[in-house]
């Protein structure tokens, strides 16, 4: 495992705070194997967003930085893009789909 600081913007009640950061621990790999379609052999959180306590989201939640939730807002057009949010967005027009916890 490696440890480093995750740098991010914090948005609270419409105010953006730049240069926020928190220490995290994460794994590094240059080789992946297994069947992603079979849950017992799948990688757990390819980018550190798995269900385990070591996930990036769990670490940030434990430190009081963000709730234990993340959102990936897709743009929906052919160009791709979107926004990855660690924590909650409180907007009237946001539609959430819960993750399967099994």
TrEMBL record:
Which stretches are annotated as coiled coil? Answer: none
Q: Which GO terms describe its molecular function?
A: aspartic-type endopeptidase activity
Q: Which UniProt keywords apply?
A: Hydrolase, Membrane, Protease, Signal, Transmembrane, Transmembrane helix
In its UniProt record, which GO terms are filed under biological process?
A: proteolysis
Record's GO cellular component, any one? membrane
Q: Name one Pfam family in it.
A: TAXi_N
List residues of the Xylanase inhibitor N-terminal domain.
2-87
The organism's superkingdom is given as Eukaryota
Q: Where in the cell is it found?
A: Membrane
Cross-referenced SUPFAM superfamilies: Acid proteases
InterPro entries the record matches: Aspartic_peptidase_A1, Peptidase_aspartic_dom_sf, TAXi_N
Query: Which PANTHER family does the record match to this protein?
Result: ASPARTYL PROTEASES (PTHR13683), PEPTIDASE A1 DOMAIN-CONTAINING PROTEIN (PTHR13683:SF375)
Q: Which family does it belong to?
A: Belongs to the peptidase A1 family.
Identification of the protein by name: Aspartic proteinase-like protein 2-like
Q: Which organism is it from?
A: Trifolium medium
